[in-house]
Structure prediction request, 151 residues.
Amino acid sequence: MANLTDIKFNFLKSTLIFALVGLFIPGFTAIGLLGLQMLLSSFGVDCETAWTVIWSFTILGAIILPIVFIGHIRIINRDKRKSLKTKLILFNLFEYIFIQAGLATLFTNGHPLCYVGDGQNGLEFAFTAWLSLPILILLSYIFGKLSRYEK
Prediction:
């Protein structure tokens, strides 16, 4: 029986499992982003301005979160490795949402999301969520190469 300190962690495998789930949840995360926009609007922020704030925050988050996570996995010790899977799942979820929203700026802007009723408002978020999955897989590959505990 292998000692817990001898067990290696596979970043890529965990992220591939998350990616399978990620194929089915883009609508839920898009609804969450819409809810955030509605919350900001309830505080008096204009709809288009709310989307600009959300996109600014998510783009910044999509850049900073991997840097912070890399710093974390480089200093993690063997005792704290047990929580690494949970931290990777949380990283994947937040980075998935950040990339989803950040990429949406390439396909839409606040005006159609707020004022155009063509029936496709927010559909871009589903596609950008799917586009974020290969990016998450690439990030996990990099994490594995940078980690001392990769399988």
In short: Residues 47-75 form the longest helix (29 residues).
